[in-house]
Write a structure and sequence with these properties.
Rieske-like_NirD, Rieske_2Fe-2S_sf, mainly beta, three-stranded antiparallel sheet, Rieske Iron-sulfur Protein, 10 strands, iron, oxidoreductase activity, acting on paired donors, with incorporation or reduction of molecular oxygen, 2 iron, 2 sulfur cluster binding
Length: 105
C-alpha cells in the first residue's frame, strides 16, 4: 500500500512572519515552515540530521536555516546540509492559494 500525497491547508500567509520559523504537525510529521524575505514559503523536516535540533528555531539567512544546536547550515530548497558537514532533511512542496499556505504531504 502506497501513501497518497495531497495538499494540506496549513495557515494564512499573513500569520507566518518573514524570517521566523514555525513548527507545524501534519500526518504524524513535525515540519519546519519558513516565509523567506523574497516571499517564498519553504517547508522541511523539523529535525537536523546531526543531533535532531529543532530547525524551526534556527536562524534563517537567504534560502538557508542554521540549526540552533550546532550551527549546521541547511538548504531550504534542497534539504542538503552544507559541506563539510553531511546529511539531508526531507523537503515538502508548498504553494500559496487564496492567501493560505498549503503543504504537500
Amino acid at each position: 500500500m502506497t501513501a497518497t500525497l495531497e495538499w494540506n491547508k496549513i495557515m494564512k500567509l499573513a500569520d507566518l512572519p518573514k524570517q521566523i520559523g514555525k513548527e507545524v504537525h501534519l500526518k504524524g510529521k513535525s515540519i519546519a515552515l519558513f516565509h523567506l524575505s523574497n516571499g517564498d514559503v519553504r517547508a522541511i523536516a523539523n529535525s537536523c540530521p546531526h543531533q535532531n535540533g529543532p530547525l524551526a528555531e534556527g536562524i534563517v539567512s537567504g534560502e538557508f536555516v542554521f540549526c540552533p544546536l550546532h550551527d549546521w547550515k541547511i538548504s531550504l530548497v534542497t534539504g542538503e546540509v552544507q559541506k563539510p558537514d553531511n546529511g539531508c532533511v526531507e523537503v515538502y512542496e508548498t504553494q500559496i492559494k487564496d492567501d493560505y499556505i498549503y503543504i504537500m504531504v
